[in-house]
Amino acid sequence: MREHCHPAPIYHPWRVLGRHWPHVNVKYTSDLPLGRLGDTNGLDEIRLRDRLLQVERRCALTHELVHLEHGHTGACSPANEDAVNRETARRLITWDALVQALRWARSERELAAELWVTIPILRARTSNLHADELLELAHVFHDVHHDMPHLENPHG
Questions:
Q1: pTM for the predicted model, two decimal places
Q2: Do 43 and 64 form a contact (C-beta atoms < 8 A)?
Q3: Contact status, residue 49 vs residue 28, Cβ threshold 8 Å
Q4: 55, 81, 107, 122: least surrounded by Cβ within 10 Å?
Q5: Average per-residue pLDDT for the chain
């Protein structure tokens, strides 16, 4: 058991922005295409939809930082967007955090809230797991099931 281990550091996109992209301005706007939380010109500006929840801002900013790192300056192909989403999810959801949260979360919404991500980012993280990761998660689910007390049938 890892009782005395320090948890993996949480990814802070605002800290990354300040340290590695100090010349990039973040603007809040309602002038984004429907369904889009943010965008970037790939050079010196990130636009985030105004009125986002904190978790949405965290995910959107990380997503746009990944675009900056890859030098994307215009519209991206669906394949590039998928790759950026996967990288965003990998940064925001560590493996250890995912495993720990899966031990008790009983819904996708609970899991996303615990991991401080949006459901689409959670899905991006879990949709591309490797076989060994899936096997480890199967063991987690098995352990959780066996550790839960069995309730007697009140009708039986």
A1: 0.84
A2: no
A3: yes
A4: 107
A5: 88
